[in-house]
Amino acid sequence: MNKTRITTLLAALVVSLAAVSLLWAGTTVEDTFDMKTKEYTEHTYNPAPFTHKKHAEDYNISCGECHHDADGKALELTMGDDVQRCIECHKIPGKAPKVKKGEKKLKGAEKRQYHAEALHDNCISCHKDFNKDFKKKNPAEKKGPAPTSCNKCHPGGKIK
Ligand code: HEC
Ligand code: HEC
Ligand code: HEC
Ligand code: HEC
Question: Structural domain boundaries of the chain?
């Protein structure tokens, strides 16, 4: 076998290995991204930045605190596993419609059909619990570090 032939073979091997690793990569996720789900026709608030890697690694939150199956049961995942996006199940973009006086407010699962309600539930309830705990452990602090107000998550608040 001459040198060029070996080089060609090696090159082919590298290309096919790269192709295989792509196939096996599953769903990838950015370390940090803006929550701006593309199925929305319009966003009325500036997008909330989300430090995915920090949440999973530095804050030591297990994947299943946020990712669950079609019954709402927490998933045990490792990086590289396929993951469904929230909107695949919490299908309606935006918040639940405001109700008129006398009408019943949507609650629980019905409310969480609306994507933004499911996200708010997940993000804010954990942040509230965490801050409560944090203040208990640090009585001198007035506030916990996890954001719970509109403008802390949506920088600049409402889009003008
Ligand atoms: C604090 C909540 C939270 C934790 C913890 C978390 N994730 Fe996520 N993850 C999200 C959110 C929110 C998205 C964005 C989903 C969307 O676009 O609907 C996401 C997106 C992803 C995606 C990309 C999905 C896609 O198709 O765009 C993958 C893959 C993923 N996460 C895997 C994991 C794994 C594996 C772990 C654990 C090591 C983990 N996540 C921990 C909340 C979390
Ligand atoms: C495969 C479908 C599916 C996907 C994907 C999915 N959910 Fe859910 N989720 C459900 C079902 C079913 C329930 C149970 C009904 C309910 O309580 O809304 C649920 C429940 C919830 C709850 C209520 C949990 C509780 O304990 O009260 C929150 C909050 C939530 N989902 C947020 C999210 C977020 C955030 C994502 C994306 C990171 C996501 N869901 C992805 C199907 C899904
Ligand atoms: C299960 C718990 C949990 C969930 C769910 C969660 N967070 Fe957090 N988040 C934390 C904790 C804990 C901190 C603060 C950690 C610290 O500073 O010590 C934090 C901090 C943050 C911060 C400020 C610091 C940083 O890393 O950017 C932002 C912004 C944030 N979260 C956005 C979100 C959004 C958006 C979601 C929903 C998609 C979300 N979080 C869901 C636990 C959670
Ligand atoms: C912990 C972070 C967090 C807090 C606090 C928070 N949001 Fe959100 N909000 C989100 C995330 C994440 C989404 C999902 C956006 C997406 O995926 O496109 C969202 C979606 C929305 C949407 C639908 C999308 C849009 O731009 O029209 C509205 C409206 C909204 N939020 C308003 C508010 C208001 C008002 C408050 C305060 C009462 C608030 N949010 C507090 C994280 C947060």
Answer: 28-153
